Prior knowledge:
Blueprint: H1 3-12, H2 18-32, H3 37-41, H4 50-64, H5 69-73, E1 75-78, E2 81-84, H6 94-107, E3 113-117, H7 123-131, E4 136-141, H8 144-156, E5 161-165, E6 179-184, H9 199-202, H10 207-210, H11 219-231, E7 232-241, H12 247-256, E8 260-266, E9 272-278
Parallel strand pairs: 3-4, 3-6, 4-5, 6-7
Antiparallel strand pairs: 1-2, 7-9, 8-9
Helix pairs in contact: 1-2, 6-7
Amino acid sequence: MNSLTSRIRQTLQKTYSPEEAKALAMMICCDMLGLNALDIYTGKDIILSASTHCELENILLRLQKHEPIQYIRGFAEFYGNSFRVAPGVLIPRPETVELVEMIVKEHTAMAPAVLDIGTGSGCIAISLAKALPKAKVTAWDISEEALTIARYNSEKLEVNVRFEKQDVLLEGISSEVQYDVIVSNPPYILEGEKLAMEANVLEWEPEQALFVPDNDPLLFYRRIADLGRELLLPNGKIYFEINQAYGNEVRDMLREMHYKEIEVINDFFGNPRMVKANK
Length: 279
Ligand code: GLN
C-alpha cells in the first residue's frame, strides 16, 4: 500500500468497512484509474495527473453517497460477461448466476424456446442465449429504460434476444408462441424488509425491480404460474428466483396450480433461493 491507496482507504472507511474500503481502493486504482498495479503493490509513490485526480475525487464523492460501484463503472460482471448497468436496472446478483447455471445444465445442446419475465439488464436472457446458442429467447420488461439497456447488452454481447415491453400483471396477455422455459427473477422484497437493506441498494436501485406491489409476496409468482398454464408447452418448466422467506409458500402455490416435480433449491449461502417446476 502506498500513500495514495492509504488515503483512498481512509476516506472510504468513513462510509464502508475496512475490508470494503481496501477492496474499493484497489479496484479504483488498478481497474478504474488504470494505475500500474505493480507500483501500487510495491508502494511506489504515484503522482496523479490533474485529470486523473479529478476523476478520483468524483469517484470518491459518488461512493460516499453510497452509489454502487457497478453504477459508477457502468457495468457489472455476470456469468462471465460484462453487462451495462445504470440506476434504471437492478445490478445482477451472484445468486442469479445459479439460476442461469441450472437452466443451462438442464438444456445443454437443446433448442428451447425461453421467456424471461422482468429482464432488467437482460442478464438472464442474454446469458442463456449465449450459453445455449440454439435457444430462442424472448424477454419482457415493463420498463422502457430497462429494455434500452438490455437491447444494448444483447448487441454488445452479440446475441439475438427478442425484447418486448410487457406488464406481466396486466390481465389478458396472450401469446402465439409457447415456451419450453419460463424464467423470472421478479421483485420480491416486502415493505417490512426495507429496514434491513443496505443504503446502496435502497437508495440507488430501482424500486420497481425490488419491491413487490401490494406487499403480496406471491403476486408475481402466482401471475407467472397462471400465465404458464397457457404459455408453457406440455413439458415446459418454470424457474423462479425467490425471496428466501417464501420457499414453502411458492411451492404450495405451484402445487395447488397443478405444477409437478416442484423443487425449492438453496443458493450457495444455503438460503432457499430458486424454485423450479414442470407443467
Ligand atoms: N436479491 C435482490 C436483493 O437482495 C433482490 C432481487 C429481487 O427483488 N428480485 O437486493
